[in-house]
Write a structure and sequence with these properties.
By secondary structure, this protein is mainly alpha-helical. Helix content is 73%, strand content 0%. It has eleven helices and no strands. The protein has helices at residues 7-17, 40-43, 53-85, 96-124, 135-143, 147-169, 177-208, 210-246, 252-275, 278-287, 289-298. The longest helix has 37 residues, at 210-246. The protein is globular and about 60 Å long.
Length: 303
């Protein structure tokens, strides 16, 4: 369990950092399409030397659109799982239900924020960009891997968002300020969610026992493999979006390179950055050292 944290304290912090969508997006807050949206460590457009600088910028922005769509999809997926964990028993922390109810409310707000940003993107970009789906079917498949496997998945995603902002985005002054504002405000609330997730995972794992917790790690890895298949499909959609935006079809050899390198970039953004996150690994390792060892063994493939 995270030292120095409890449901009451995390609820109090969440209320202090709370923000409104209207403060982030709307009239007078346009996106700057002359700038990149994602850090190069995620977009990895520099690896594609056959694209011009202007084309690499288009690709970066397409990946930014995908980033928003992916986190909207993920939050739609995890919302029912969090709602299921919200009811508390008399022997649990009296602030638990209120803290998790607030968690749900904030996740719903994040979904609406991502929807609004995607709408703004569509108004300013050259073409419509494709995205995998439908979200309901993807979410149902992910949630089919059991409560503990799902809790581990949520924990990994929440901790990854912390790493994205603190280690990659915060100090990147070249990014579109509006897109960066979204990521900052998302991080402000997700920083509390990650700690709440760790507490819920700890509760479920203690109840389940070592063998079921280790089995949940296998379920979590199965979720990762499923998502990786979706990322492969998304890379193909991004290629189609790029070719439409730049008005040319890439030669076959360049398309092959694009798909291989951009798939790996997607893997790092959504999977590797979670599997390598020290907060996530610490929370898992405290419960299941064997489970952490499994994660450590597969993580390099997603970097």
């Amino acid at each position: 369990m995270l030292q120095g944290h409890n449901y009451q304290r995390l609820l109090e912090i969440s209320k202090r950092v709370n923000w409104r969508i209207e403060d982030i997006i709307g009239p007078g807050k346009p996106m700057d399409f002359t700038r990149p949206f994602l850090p190069e460590s995620f977009a990895r457009t520099g690896e594609l030397s056959f694209l011009t600088p202007a084309e690499r910028l288009k690709l970066n922005q397409i990946r930014g659109f995908g980033y928003l769509a992916m986190f909207e999809l993920v939050e739609r997926c995890i919302l029912p799982a969090i709602e299921e964990q919200t009811p508390s028993t008399p022997d649990q922390d009296p602030h638990r239900t209120e803290a998790l109810t607030n968690f749900v409310t904030e996740e719903m707000k994040h979904i609406e924020l991502f929807v609004r940003f995607r709408q703004a993107f569509r108004e300013g970009f050259d073409v419509d960009c494709g995205f995998i789906g439908p979200a309901e079917e993807i979410g149902a498949t992910i949630r089919s891997h059991g409560d503990l496997g799902m809790a581990l998945f949520i924990l990994a995603i929440e901790w990854a968002t912390q790493q994205h902002w603190l280690e990659t985005v915060e100090d990147d002054e070249g990014l579109d300020p509006q897109f960066k504002s979204l990521l900052k405000h998302h991080w402000l609330e997700e920083s509390q969610h990650a700690k709440l997730d760790a507490m819920v995972f700890h509760e479920l794992a203690m109840k389940a026992g070592p063998e079921q917790t280790l089995a949940a790690v296998d379920a979590f890895l199965a979720i990762g493999a499923f998502i990786d298949g979706g990322l492969s499909q998304q890379t193909q959609l991004d290629l189609a979006s790029l070719e439409a935006a730049i008005g040319r079809t890439l030669p076959d050899a360049h398309r092959e390179t694009f798909l291989a390198r951009q798939h790996q970039a997607q893997r790092w953004t959504y999977l590797g950055s979670a599997l390598r996150n020290q907060g996530f690994l610490k929370a898992l390792g405290e419960i299941s050292p064997e489970g952490r060892a499994k994660i450590d063994a597969v993580a390099p493939a997603f970097c």
